[in-house]
Amino acid sequence: MADVKEITDATFEEEVMKSEKPAIVDFWADWCMPCKAMGPVIEEIAGTLTDKVKICKINVDQNTKMATDLGVMNIPTMLFFKDGQEKTRVTGVVSKEDLISKANELLG
Question: Is 4-107 a CATH 3.40.30.10 domain?
Fold first, then answer.
């Protein structure tokens, strides 16, 4: 996962809220089969968008604070941030094309 950064509740603000680049954060868990299905898709878009967008993953079982604070009720959920603000979110299994489209909207 060279292009996907594992973050925690403690590093969320620095890695996402203060990021100079827009950020996509994947909220996931080890036991979640849809999350496992999205893993390769997240990795693929990271390889495609790494110069423009920061791609992060946060395990909701180990990091409950940010999931709770941001109202993440289901996983996988991908939150799209720009300038420290959540701009949109996608929940469930979605295509690589859908995620890239949302990322391009974020880049505007």
Answer: yes
